[in-house]
Q: What sequence folds into this?
């Protein structure tokens, strides 16, 4: 029987994890303190340790991870955090954590992750993947989508593989590229970024590969290209989908042969460069429609990282807004904070321009704010109009849907239906609804449903 140790300073979380792991047929011990976890690990060997990072004492989950891996290298460790950052994810992977999960967690995800960890238990323990992360990443947020992105960055940063970073305009693709570079063995080398869509085809070829004197009008001297500048480092090709077929052919040669030819030169020059590329286009469609070379696409997309749009991680908006406001204050803005009403409006907006549009919006509002607090009146009209639309909407909405139950009533009916379908099992109900047990308890309390009466 597999043995699991659960470590969390919250008793309810400990009991919940112990319950779902026990239902899987595993033997479970638990502790609410780091000291208790140490004592348990001294007495017995565990196949898997599942620990919260923030344990409320002097010792956190990262420190425990180091001790567990030192004491029992074959034991796998899964860390859980309610406030995830890229730095924490990198450190967790660096110290040998099997995985890193954010709260509130999905029951099925936790069980699936535990199964994978137990399956790998006893195999060669993972080596430290990344060097110490010492510089600010610029990536902000701890929503589930961002936690997944942090984990992906941590896992692939050490590799030499090319990485294709996809996402809408303004989501922060270059920040992801810089994070990959900083956390790689090339982190001390050059990071060279080029916007392929902002340079004409003729100039782009010269910029990327260099040229020799006299190769074209204006070439008055030999010039090294950006690939040579990035030697032993990383080159970031932003908006790779904007390149011409001719440039794509030469990029493919660099990836295949690790060498470039300056414009007008017959001599090949070897380069040792990691290539990261980014696009807001659907390159698979571009390939099908003949605008992007298929062979280059497959060379670039050895690893693909998708950066989520802001509308899919709206939980991060307060953090991003606060960060943008700090920058605005450095530029002389008077505003020091954002009102709850203004934040509410910001959260309702779709943000087609993503984080870049949010930063510009906050900078504008901070400059025009009438006092120290950004209020709804300081926001652009396109955002304030959301408030006006909501003021006009309720009467018409109530008129059309007067005979239908409210969303609250539907939610209550759904909870009762699920509980009846699973014979009152709280664990199964949480799984079916895709929520954690604490959320289930809060819902039941809000609707006046006594879970104890339903049984297990």
A:
């Amino acid at each position: 029987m597999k043995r699991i140790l659960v470590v969390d300073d919250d008793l309810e979380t400990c009991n919940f994890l112990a319950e779902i792991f026990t239902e899987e047929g595993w033997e479970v011990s638990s502790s609410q303190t780091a000291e208790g976890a140490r004592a348990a690990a001294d007495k017995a060997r565990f196949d898997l340790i599942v620990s919260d990072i923030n344990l409320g004492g002097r010792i956190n989950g990262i420190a425990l991870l180091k001790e567990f891996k030192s004491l029992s290298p074959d034991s796998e460790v899964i860390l859980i955090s309610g406030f995830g950052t890229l730095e924490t994810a990198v450190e967790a992977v660096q110290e040998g954590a099997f995985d890193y999960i954010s709260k509130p967690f999905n029951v099925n995800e936790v069980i699936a992750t535990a199964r994978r960890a137990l399956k790998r238990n006893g195999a060669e323990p993972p080596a430290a993947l990344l060097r110490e992360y010492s510089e600010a990443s610029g990536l902000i947020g701890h929503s589930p989508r961002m936690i997944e992105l942090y984990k992906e960055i941590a896992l692939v940063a050490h590799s030499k593989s090319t990485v294709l970073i996809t996402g809408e305009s303004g989501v922060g693709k270059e920040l992801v590229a810089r994070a990959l570079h900083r956390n790689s063995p090339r982190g001390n080398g050059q990071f060279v970024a080029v916007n392929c869509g902002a340079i004409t085809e003729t100039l782009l070829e010269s910029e990327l590969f260099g040229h020799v004197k006299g190769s074209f009008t204006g070439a008055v001297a030999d010039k090294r290209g950006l690939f040579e500048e990035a030697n032993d480092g990383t080159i970031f090709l932003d908006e790779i989908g904007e390149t011409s077929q001719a440039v794509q052919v030469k990029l493919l040669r660099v990836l295949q042969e690790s060498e470039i030819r300056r414009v007008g030169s017959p001599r090949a020059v070897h380069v040792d460069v990691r290539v990261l590329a980014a696009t807001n286009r659907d390159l698979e469609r571009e390939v099908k429609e003949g605008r992007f070379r298929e062979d280059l696409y497959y060379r670039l997309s050895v690893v693909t990282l998708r950066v989520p749009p802001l509308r899919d991680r709206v939980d991060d908006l307060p953090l991003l807004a606060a960060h943008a406001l700090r920058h605005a204050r450095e530029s002389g803005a008077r505003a020091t904070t954002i009102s709850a009403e203004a934040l509410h409006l910001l959260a309702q907006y779709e943000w087609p321009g993503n984080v870049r549009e949010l930063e510009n919006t906050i900078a504008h509002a901070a400059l025009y704010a009438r006092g120290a607090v950004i209020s709804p009146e300081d926001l652009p009209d396109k955002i304030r109009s959301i408030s006006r639309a909501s003021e006009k909407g309720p009467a018409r909405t109530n008129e059309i849907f007067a005979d239908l139950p409210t969303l609250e009533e539907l939610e209550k009916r759904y909870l009762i239906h699920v509980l009846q379908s699973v014979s009152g099992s709280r664990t199964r109900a949480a799984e079916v609804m895709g929520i954690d047990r604490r959320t289930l308890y809060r819902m039941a309390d809000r609707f006046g449903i006594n879970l104890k009466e339903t049984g297990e």
Notes: DSSP finds 20 helices and 16 strands in the chain. The mean pLDDT is 83.
